[in-house]
Design a protein that fits this description.
By secondary structure, the protein is mostly helical. The protein contains seven helices and no strands.
């Protein structure tokens, strides 16, 4: 038997494979070379990625977030304070900002989804304009909410704050803009000690 006949020996299972015949030949050298090359490359790339270059998806994400913060920050950082007036004009401007950035988590009607409901009576971090503004600016990292201050800036964060406060007031039949004394409570007269000073609650 010649070497070619030895190489081209048919395995003989065409009856089991709809007439398809198969030679019992070794893989071509070029294919085996590529196969071993991919293995060597994978080992080298893994060693470089994790140990030499010390890269990781988490570090790549951190770099992207830092770049985004540097790109979109308008200079009015999260510690600028709740300087935006809660007005009808600010709320109107904040509606579009909310729809673009917040509706995916809190719902188009602010009734919650991934994030909590913003128009019910329960507030996790406070319902005053200052509290809402602080939540928007600084985020709630442990709950998965980004710090929007570096992305939106103080003015736009204030506008979306005004929109949230407005929609909550409408849902709860509260006045808008809210009176300043409402943030401190409605029972000041009940705690008067008779000398004109309020007792600590």
């Amino acid at each position: 038997m010649s070497q070619r006949d030895e190489r081209d020996r048919i395995l003989g299972h065409e009856d089991e494979a709809d007439g398809i015949q198969e030679y019992d030949n070794p893989m071509p050298d070029w294919w085996l070379g590529l196969f071993w090359l991919t293995i060597i490359f994978a080992v080298g790339y893994t060693a470089h990625y994790h140990f030499i270059a010390d890269r990781s998806p988490a570090k790549a994400l951190s770099r992207e977030l830092a770049a985004a913060e540097a790109r979109y920050s308008s200079g009015d950082a999260a510690d600028a304070g709740p300087t935006t007036m809660v007005t009808e004009e600010a709320a109107a401007a904040g509606a579009a900002i909310y729809g673009t950035n917040c509706a995916s988590c809190h719902g188009a009607a602010l009734q919650g989804g991934i994030g909590p409901n913003l128009v019910d009576e329960e507030w996790i971090h406070g319902s005053s304009p200052e509290a809402v503004y602080n939540t928007v600016m600084n985020g709630v990292v442990e709950k998965g909410m980004l710090a929007w201050g570096p992305i939106l800036g103080a003015q736009r964060a204030g506008q979306v704050t005004a929109y949230v406060v407005q929609q909550h007031a409408m849902a709860q039949d509260l006045p808008f803009p809210p009176a300043p004394e409402e943030d401190e409570g409605h029972d000041d007269d009940d705690h008067d000690d008779g000398d004109g000073e309020e007792a600590d609650g």
